[in-house]
Amino acid sequence: MQLQYLIKFAIVLLLFFGVNLSIKAQTIATDIISDSYVSVDETSSEELWNLIEYYLENPLVWNSCTEYEIEELPLNNSLKEMLIDSKNRNKIYNNWKSFQKDLGISKREMEIISAFIILEERKVETGSILSYISIKGNQSEKDLSKSLVRSRWDYPSGWFVGAITEADQGEPHACDYYNLTFRSPVIRTDLELIGGAFRLHWGHGLLFTTNLMNSRSSDAIRNIMPKNERIQNYLGSDENRYFFGSAIKFQTGKWKLFPFYSNHNLDATITDGIVSALKTDGAHRSESQVAAKDALAEQVIGIGSLFDLEHIKIGGLFFNSDYSYPLKFLEFGKSLSGVSLFHKFDYEGLTFTGEFAYLNPGDWAVIQSGVIKMGAVSIGVSSRYFSPEFHPLMGYPMKKYSGYPSNEKGFYMGMNVRFKSGWRFSSYTDFYSRIRSKVVGVPIPKGNDVFVGVSRNFRGGHNVDVKLKRCIKWQESSSDPIEKKYQLKGKLKYYLLNDFFITTRLSYILVKKDEYFNKGMAFSVSTNIKINSMSVFTMGTTQFYSDGFDSRVYLFEPGIPFTFNMMPLYGTGYRFFIVARKRFNEIFEGSMAGKFQSRRNIDENNWIKTTSVEVQMLVDL
Fold this sequence. Notes:
mainly beta
């Protein structure tokens, strides 16, 4: 029944998207999300959304931007390397035609680049309203899975205002979560005010970062490099991990200063007047989840200072947080304060960078990295140490073990190579261990990851990407591995026509624990067709097999732009998906996705069938 429904849904989509209406000819965020042009492998979809819209509102100016600002763009490595090579030749352009000719890029690549980089300063009034609804169901019931409305307005004067409201499945209120954020124009060339919801990134992310996803890039060097400091308006739906208050960005010459203040309520489980756990999922369905909503008041005040010289960055940051209840993981204290020192030195291909952070219970962390670039080859090393009780609530540095406290030390080596033929090679190895066992009497766990990846973007939009990763875990008391995991991922994208391409994806995992083997595999084929100049239709299928939860497979699946489409697959079964997107009437863009899955566990005969429908409307004002 669900499959018949999906087929009917596809017919409706074809009729709807086959209508050729007048379309606004401009690049918008949902075009840029194409996984051929944007780097997405270590960033959550929500963070990617915020990052892309940040640059759409604040594009780099080519003639004045730096190599390091280009490296921050959420573009894939192939495009960024072409831009950096051209920038290092000190080329100045007055028109895009010369820019495209010198770089030898396609028209589509030029459209993507021009969304992030401009040739001269400009400011136009833009605004948008996005509405998203997801409905999921099985044989017995169907329910609203998620609803979200996000609006934003960027004025020529420099003012920015945004708002969001969201509700998840089973939550009693239609607007379970809502938020507001704004940014002032730059005052007298050196002062800017941010209010409402915001996030802060500093150094290597030991204390504060805008990206709270525990994942690593397939770029071995980017994993160990810091991001530029940034106070960023927040319009995401992570209901707990953000600040709400005000921040000031002040710059005079090479010196930057940014004080900030936040007064925010967090979800927390409180037992006998003590906070036993912070809730970060934002779910408010059960009685206990509703009771935990906004239960803990948090007040944060801080200030950061940075000297940004030609080849040197050096700065420090201090903050203090006060809470309305004592926290168990802060030794039953009601406050947390910390300080961070950050430095970065780069000169003629050599980069030396690091961050040291200290929290007031006596816990500390340090990251130190070095990178050397020799033409097409980049080599980097990094060491890290997070003391057993190091517990920053808004930080997420590069580490192996998820969650907090951090309790980890490690040593990382990586290399990137660009070949003249256009192929890219990336590899890293990472040795890591706990500093102290989480359970008394249990040996300290250790591990080693090895990653190798090769990729190439061909002219005409073709793309191939292959990644292999091996993870080994053992205990301090023995050198014999207690777990081995091998993962293989591959993607091939091939254009049959200018507006028609096929994408295949493969993911395979083999897990060995003790004397037992578990394996999993998934294979996906999808087609992407442009029906007219701004209408896109995607359909495909995924077949999967996994004989255990430890060998579950994660495979990217096309879906509504800027939603999380990395599907966890286990058991055996198949999926069908249909996605369509159209921009019409010059201001509207509609996206629809229908997905059907039939799966069963290996040791069961009962097939579980589920269907989901997602609808998203973007109004470009």
